[in-house]
């Protein structure tokens, strides 16, 4: 399903890519959704979402640093090192959060609008789920509330009987941007690897 797109209600299109992520999900009721919305949109930072918050801040910081790095290179270098250390610490938090629950990497079809993932549990269309996913290898933890679009029998042969498609119902736009950037980076990496393999093949001929 690589390179396909998904359209959200606001008519935006999102590239999709098969990728490995750390993932957990659970049904939520209206009361739990209200609490999750507060965590998401009031930017209540916890150990799981702090890496995503730092990653967004790092983007802003890099633009600021570039504006004065020529005049104050030592200060710019110091601030960049501090930013890197904070991001490393945040990634450790996400690793601890996901490892504590015994999560392993799952192959999903990922986009900034939603995803398709294998599941041991059957869900009904329009059920609401809390979704926590960690993008690899950066260990960027993203929290969202998602609506089930469909749930059908899996043909993947991975031991999990269901394929579940969800669309993000409540997610920070900055986190959506992080997913989109991750997908573009992964696609660029795969294209580069493909070109290198083709080049090696021509050299061996």
UniProtKB/TrEMBL annotation:
Q: Tell me the GO molecular function terms.
A: cyclic-di-GMP binding
Among Gene3D superfamilies, the record links this protein to: predicted glycosyltransferase like domains (2.40.10.220)
Q: Which residues form the PilZ domain?
A: 107-184
Q: Which Pfam families match?
A: PilZ
Q: Enumerate the InterPro entries for this protein.
A: PilZ_domain
- Quote the protein name from its UniProt record: PilZ domain-containing protein
What organism does the UniProt record list as the source? Thiohalobacter thiocyanaticus
